[in-house]
Amino acid sequence: MDIIKIVGIGLITVIASMLVKPMKPEISIIIGLCGGILIISQTINYILDIVNAFTNIVEKTGLDFGLLKIVLKIIGVGYLTEFSASLCSDAGSSSIADKILFAGKIIILFIALPIVTKILEIIVELLP
Fold this sequence. Notes:
By secondary structure, the protein is mainly alpha-helical. It contains five helices and no strands. The chain has helices spanning 2-20, 25-41, 44-61, 65-90, 94-126. The chain is elongated and about 70 Å long.
């Protein structure tokens, strides 16, 4: 099972980072980054399956592919923001992590504006 590999990579990364941190803190950050990349690489097939499932839903329902793109962008920004903020926190820069999270939320809101606009247009059309 992939989760066992992921947990193993995570535990090895944490242990290696903890052992190296007292001597070389900058290397500890690189170890964490590499471990995170390895974990993400283990999920690529799942990500592709999810995108394919969304694509099938859009094709079957006749929804606009533009909406799918927006949803996938929002999900991508959310995950990338969380991953980056976690790296900053692990490196001891929680202030920067907070700012990355804030920026990610603003960008997600901006990306979602077309969906919000479309919903409001539908509501206005339904009103007498």
